[in-house]
């Protein structure tokens, strides 16, 4: 099983959209592909389970039937940083790894989506960056193309590389249809980030992962480690 961690430059910049697009892309290539979101915020009660819209979207596009609790072991109702909601102050990384091991014979490609940005605290002492480090899997960075994206992106890339983690690619996801100087911003980021750009996803008013997947090149993921 090939696993990737999807993180972003901010919240609401299209991590779930890109995660779903990557799943769709690999399914179209004939693989068993699915997603996982270990921690989700902004959930609601449905059929006796706390579930987020992000997790529902991931389940809808995956072609592997997985248990909801395995896909999303930690879910919170309030759409805020998880460490504020998480009263027990503990993420059981062994539980998450146990689920990952159980997926190995079922899935060819697994995309694990984070919550918020790369440095978001999950508990008082454990961040998304720590989760990536514990899982030891390469990172795909979703860049929300809008005003301020250069600063957010360069800081996030620097943080990933400072932790000696593997940045294997990034996706430019246009979240602001009217963004000024889009091409100049994109060109600057493409020059500064050594990991390959996996694609430019245009603005979609109603996001469609099947349409968006056409703008992503998964062949560039063959070389996973771009650490410098």
Quick tags:
globular, six-stranded parallel beta sheet, alpha/beta, 20% strand, disordered C terminus, 9 helices, 228 residues, two-stranded parallel ribbon
List the helices and strands and how they pair.
Layout: E1 2-8, H1 15-28, E2 33-36, E3 39-40, E4 44-46, E5 49-51, H2 53-61, H3 68-71, E6 74-75, H4 82-85, H5 93-103, E7 109-113, H6 128-135, E8 139-145, H7 149-162, E9 167-174, H8 182-192, E10 197-201, H9 209-212
Parallel strand pairs: 1-7, 1-8, 2-7, 3-6, 8-9, 9-10
Antiparallel strand pairs: 4-5
Describe it.
It is a single chain. The chain contains 9 helices and 10 strands. The chain is an alpha/beta fold and 228 residues long. The protein has a 6-stranded parallel beta sheet, with helices on both faces. A two-stranded parallel ribbon has the order 3-6. Helix 1 packs parallel to helix 2. The longest helix has 14 residues. It starts with a strand and ends in a 16-residue tail after the last helix.
Compressed to H and E, one letter per element, the order equals EHEEEEHHEHHEHEHEHEH
The amount of helix comes to 25-40%
Low-confidence stretches: 224-228
* Radius of gyration from CA coordinates: 16 Å
Structural class: alpha/beta
Summarize the structure.
This protein is α/β, with parallel strands linked by helices and 228 residues long. 35% of the residues lie in helices and 20% in strands. The chain contains 9 helices and 10 strands.
């Amino acid at each position: 099983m090939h696993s990737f961690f999807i993180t972003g430059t901010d919240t609401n910049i299209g991590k779930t959209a890109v995660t779903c697009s990557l799943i769709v892309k690999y399914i179209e290539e004939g693989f068993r592909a699915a997603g996982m979101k270990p921690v989700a915020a902004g959930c609601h009660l449905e059929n006796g389970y706390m579930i987020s819209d992000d997790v529902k979207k991931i389940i809808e596009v995956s072609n592997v039937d997985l248990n909801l609790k395995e896909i999303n072991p930690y879910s919170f109702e309030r759409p805020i940083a998880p460490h504020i909601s998480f009263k027990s102050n503990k993420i059981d990384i062994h539980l998450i790894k146990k689920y990952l091991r159980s997926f190995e014979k079922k899935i060819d490609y697994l995309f694990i989506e984070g919550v918020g940005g790369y440095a978001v605290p999950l508990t008082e002492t454990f961040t998304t960056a720590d989760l990536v480090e514990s899982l030891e899997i390469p990172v795909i960075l979703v860049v929300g193309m809008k005003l301020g994206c250069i600063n957010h992106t360069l800081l996030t890339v620097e943080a990933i590389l400072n932790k000696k983690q593997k940045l294997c690619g990034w996706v430019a996801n246009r979240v602001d249809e009217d963004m000024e100087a889009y091409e100049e911003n994109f060109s600057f980021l493409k020059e500064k980030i050594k990991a390959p750009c996996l694609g430019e996803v245009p603005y979609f008013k109603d996001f469609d992962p099947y349409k968006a997947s056409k703008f992503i090149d998964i062949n560039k993921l063959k070389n996973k480690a771009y650490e410098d």
